[in-house]
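TA notes. Do not distribute before section.
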Amino acid sequence: MEVKEHLPVAVAAKARIRTKVVADGVSTGCGNLTGFHAGYFRISLSLCAQALLWKTLSEPSGGAAGGSHALRHLARSVPAAAHLLLWSVALAVLVALCFLYALRCAVRPRHVAAEFSHHVGVNYLFAPWISWLLLLQAAPPAAAPLSRALWWAFVAPILMLDVKIYGQWFTDGKRFLSLAANPTSQMTVVGNLVGAQAAARMGWPEAATCMFSLGMVHYLVLFVTLYQRFVGSTSLPAILRPAFFLFIAASSMASLAWDSIAGKFDLGSRMLFYLSLFLLASLVSRPALFRRAMRRFNLAWWAYSFPLTMLALAATEYEQEVKGGVADALMLFLSALSVLVITVLVVFTVLKAGDLFPNGDDPFAPPPPLGSSNHSSRFEVAC
């Protein structure tokens, strides 16, 4: 009888343990979604840009010689399956990040709204659409029939974000821009320029020119604002200072976009490319600017890869137009640097995944709601 009496107690205890394990799992999962912000799309930006770089290097070089010929020969000697594998990995990572962010939108709508209103967080909302546009340009020929419809699907969110952000700059006055502008604001420009490049490659010169003009006009305003505040700027935490490399990404992307619109790497593209080289030299000559960000591996390190890959892509187009030993050396050096940086980042990400993936800390978290939990949805409170 005593054994029978203790059976319900034991069963209840096991049920409580199972319930606690499930609750802890749900709590951990929801905590990770809380910390999963749009900044994680830096990873997909780098991978998609790298896929486009290798596709560009593997294309016919139009009579290149010397070191660049050797580099292109190496890229073309890589089996087509390897290029497809790199593109597929970039696609898989991007799809996974989009899925996780969609879950965040459903589970943590207040956090997403706070990110949308944050002067840093809102800029990375361009990153998934930039990634898709880069991946579209690097896609295998089999995806060509869908490219135009996909272009509209990826550009539409960029234009909607343009209206929100550029509209604030225009209507809220100079003081708003001077307070909110930071290096990540250049993501807004990069989004328009990537859309312009993709449109030009698909044979839509008017759409390309429209997006290019929209991006460049605001780039000039933003560049002047940021340039005046470059040294000692407090608009960005020290750990996010790798985002200063977006200075390189914007000018390099402008160079590539105009190259696609004009049909050749003309004077305008070369001027923007030279500006990118100057900005790179300015940044690498100031290692103290990034010292605090480099003390421990973190997500911000991925901000180095995408701009360097964009600069390497611009260098390949520069070499095609200018030719000569200097152009060859620039193309070799920048392409090798881009591959080296992303390789190091992938290795660190695999070895130190615990330092990279979210643990519930959201840098763009909204303030706690006033009063009762009625301000949030039931599902959000449960998580």
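Switch to the second chain here.
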Amino acid sequence: MDTLYINWNTSFPALTVCEMYNSEKIWDLSEQYFGLNHDLKIDDFVSEVVFFSGACVSCAKCERMECPSNFTELLTLFRTKCSQLLQNCRYTNFHFDCCEEFLPIHTEYGICFAFNSNQARSYMRLRRFGRIKQINGLLSLTLESQITHSKNDLVRFANNRATGPGHLKFDVSVDIQLHIHSSNDVPVPCYAGMIRETILLGSTKEIIINVMEVYNDDSVAQLPLDQRRCRFSHETTEWGRKLGIYEFYSYPTCIVECGLALEMKYCNCSNHFIAPAVKYSGGVTVSICDYYGLSCLTRHYEEMQSERKSCDCISSCEEPEYNIVYSSTEDEFESDKEVTQVQISLIDLPTLRYVRRSINTPVDLLISVCGIIGLFFNASILRIIEILFYLRELKWSEVWERI
């Protein structure tokens, strides 16, 4: 444990906002898109595609009815855009454009909007520095410059003695699921190291958390991976580098990449939430599942969920720990507004943090060996220099004559 907290810079946690399924919205938009007299079974299909959760039961009915095949168009139409979803954003009472800081990110919940996320900022940098070219009918991404990152570049919304504990306020216009996590994580289902809150429209939600960060001594990076049993954010897996979905390693990103590999193994395609994020720069081609592919994913859903538990993913070396100190209930704040008011705050600046350091390094081994030699043989650097000096002053000609 480390308690020298006076000069610490604590980063505000990342927040990811994901829209939740709303049947009334689906019905209203379906009438506009498909007409008043459309088959109502189409609504079930659209719901399972737009808010895909790993299985699509209604996809099996597409052999008997005409199902929409352009999933990208469905997502554009039925998912709420950032400008409509988020409003009135304030960080420590400073207003900012919500969509400038809540950036889109590909997750297993679809495209969500993340605040203070290194993964989302990296995705937007690639879009700004990259250039999409059409060559022989193929889409390729050409980076205009090599993007490098330092640790200081990634620290955003720092909290210290000058700024005080940070607090973020924003309004949302639909039911959402809010995820609170570290800057390198992404939301994944069934991950215990992440805070999840379901927030319904018209309520007021306040969450106060504390944070316990992890500081890694320089000696930790010198250890091989199998000894320290954790990965730094720049140590992405080989499969992750080929996919190029996420730039930084974390346990949740590894799980997402492992899940995509299982989908390719069983159905030779991936769902329409993750597959579009593949960069195709590592020689890996991932096709987007149509409704036949989604039916295949549904048949193998239980097997893939079981195999995901044994994915070769280890924890990150830089995982902070977040705990809820206070979370308001739905009945605690009554509101008749057509938006949901959300406030996330740090209870105070942390005064403790974990420090991970290597107990024994190669330098420690050298010191120990030299100490043992000095103890048992009375050897030291001074003794070695003295011996070399005597050898140099020795009259070797007289020695050879005596021999």
